[in-house]
Amino acid sequence: MEELKQCRLQQRNISATVDKLMLCLPVLEMYSKLRDQMKTKRHYPALKTLEHLEHTYLPQVSHYRFCKVMVDNIPKLREEIKDVSMSDLKDFLESIRKHSDKIGETAMKQAQQQRNMDNIILQQPRIGSKRKSKKDAYTVFDTEIESTSPKSEQDSGILDVEDEEDDEEVPGAQDLVDFSPVYRCLHIYSVLGARETFENYYRKQRRKQARLVLQPPSNMHETLDGYRKYFNQIVGFFVVEDHILHTTQGLVNRAYIDELWEMALSKTIAALRTHSSYCSDPNLVLDLKNLIVLFADTLQVYGFPVNQLFDMLLEIRDQYSETLLKKWAGIFRNILDSDNYSPIPVTSEDMYKKVVGQFPFQDIEMEKQAFPKKFPFSEFVPKVYNQIKEFIYACLKFSEDLHLSSTEVDDMIRKSTNLLLTRTLSNSLQNVIKRKNIGLTELVQIIINTTHLEKSCKYLEEFITNITNVLPETVHTTKLYGTTTFKDARHAAEEEIYTNLNQKIDQFLQLADYDWMTGDLGNKASDYLVDLIAFLRSTFAVFTHLPGKVAQTACMSACKHLATSLMHLLLEAEVRQLTLGALQQFNLDVRECEQFARSGPVPGFQEDTLQLAFIDLRQLLDLFIQWDWSTYLADYGQPSCKYLRVNPVTALTLLEKMKDTSRKNNVFAQFRKNERDKQKLIDTVAKQLRGLISSHHS
After folding, report:
1. Of 45, 147, 163, 642, which residue is least crowded by CB atoms under 10 Å?
2. Helices (H), 580-643
3. pTM: predicted TM-score of the whole model, two decimal places
4. 435 and 543 both lie in a single domain
5. Confidence (pLDDT) at 328
């Protein structure tokens, strides 16, 4: 019985032990599973296992010492899971900071691809299509949120996607990013009751990253790649935040995103204003504008307001216009410097058509002429005309994709073109006209050229109308000021011709070498004057293509200047005495001038109009040579006076020079009495002239 009793006791103990072990084994298995999950970094399942262990299994065996050890370890395990998941999050944040450039590049590439499709194939509104693309992208991510595979959990942010630029399909920007570390960490902190701590930490870290991303490199303005990298990082940052906004419940909210975007917008615009102001290459400014448009369009797809970026592009447009004007100033300068200022010769129909194709020119008379023949203008006319059109095209390029109305584009092009004409081209022409070594032939050709360019302005108006589809009669349409520019240049060239001619006349007059004390009577005009008249004849022969009024004005101006200069030569203070013989020689020179005026060097003058330039000299010389003082003194002041143009002061000045010449001349004795009589006569006339002058002044 004792043995049986002992056996039954052992059986009961064994049975009780088995029952207790049956309760303990699941706890141990669950704890073992927890350890395995911790080792394989499956932290969210480990947390779920920990919950089951704590609330379901351990209470059943809580009186065992090993259970107490487990219970004591649970807070440590929770903290360990929390720390490890936070470490994963930090790795993720560091990784996306480094890879923002790649994420943004992919997003912008996708936006560019979508825009090309919209423009070429679908012809649908750009924004609508892109929103659809965004929705498709989100479908990809919804399948990843609950992913707990070892591979995805071990990855800390960026999937290993090769850069396949040549492939037809560009991977979605967010396809490059594994967001599971964020989701896991968020779930873990939510389960642990520390969601707010997690949210605050995440937002704080991302704000810091945003400030780093928005800090532009100091040399960003030097190349387009500098701007591209800057934009890629910003786009990459906001693509990630936008995805977090839409795939987590409250980790970030719209207010937080808007606040970040406002900061980003202000800093980006400030950086672009600063760096773009350093740019002097219009091609780089144009590329930058296209990049900014793509940057804005990409972010607009994700719901970010970008109107301020387009407003800033209008500011950059003004800078672009200035860089264009500087570039075209150089182009015009090269064209004008390299021109030969000679009419364009053409020897065949093909050459003729080529020039007419470059510049709108019609002349029925010229078309009838046989080859070879010449256009009236030089090569700078078609070249300048085509460069103005190129400038208009360059302005149009900037207005593309700015979402401007055709009226706004038309206004922008016209205003920029007006600046090109009234400032850049006008200055270039004025510089050529004012050059020291400019010749009369070049000035004549410039007048002809500007006349034809002025006529072409209506074709430039039509050209702008054709590319903008805005009729010139539309209200508020800016008119081109090209006609004013070319008129001003022409007037400047005309004035320069008059000045140049006068300078040439002065150069000839410097060669004048009169012997004012000669007693010999000459029989031909002075050599210097013969050369001067020959020069004037050949010069006015070149003026045949000039507008009639210009040629006539130049001729009249030259004759007046010549007459005035000759008068000055006769009356200058250095000539203290002169003889009648010297006056006779001077008279021959004036007759040569009058003969030139009568010959009609420039057509269009009525009768003796040109001769009137020398009327003052003619009447003065006639008075002295004919010694007709009685007529002069008797008729002075009457409208019908024969010597109406002779001023008594001028007559007295010349008369004073004829005094005492007899004493200086070695004349035969028998003539001295006559000379004395003549001297008395001169004194008498001089006295009467003084009386005329004093009575006239009184």
Report:
1. 163
2. 580-598, 615-626, 629-635
3. 0.73
4. no
5. 94
Co-location of 575 and 645 in the same domain: no
Range of the domain at 675: 629-697
Domain annotation covers residue 6: no
Burial (Cβ within 10 Å: 0-12, 13-18, ≥19) of residue 447: buried
* Contacts of 362 by beta carbon, 8 Å cutoff, 6+ apart: none
The residue to which tokens 């091609």 are assigned: 283
Classify residue 372: in a domain, yes or no.
Answer: no
Task: Tell me the C-alpha distance between 248 and 250, whole Å.
Answer: 6
The count of structural domains within the chain is 4
Question: What pLDDT was estimated at residue 602?
Answer: 83
Residues 231 and 299 in one domain: yes
Burial of residue 216, with CB atoms counted within 10 A of its CB: 0-12 exposed, 13-18 middle, 19 or more buried: buried
pLDDT single digits (tens) 303-335: 899 989 888 888 888 888 999 999 999 999 999
In a domain, 349, yes or no: no
Q: Which residues contact 67 (CB under 8 A, 6 or more apart)?
A: 27, 58, 61
Q: Are residues 242 and 391 in the same domain?
A: no
Is residue 643 assigned to a domain?
yes
- DSSP string for residues in 311-333: HHHHHHHHHHHHHHHHHHHHHHH
| Structural domain ending residue among the three candidates 278, 304, 330 | 304
pLDDT category at 564 given cuts 50, 70, 90 is: very high
Diameter over CA atoms, the chain: 203
Q: Tell me the three state secondary structure of residue 491.
A: helix
Q: Which amino acid is at 298?
A: T
**Which tops the pLDDT comparison, 544 or 147?**
544
Q: Are 130 and 197 in contact (CB under 8 A)?
A: no
Residues 619 and 644 in one domain: no
**Is the separation of the CB atoms in 183 and 43 below 8 Å?**
no
223 backbone dihedrals φ, ψ, rounded to 5°: -135, 160
Distance CA 466, CA 95 (A): 53
Q: Do 623 and 634 fall within a single domain?
A: no
* Per-residue tokens: 457: 């302005």
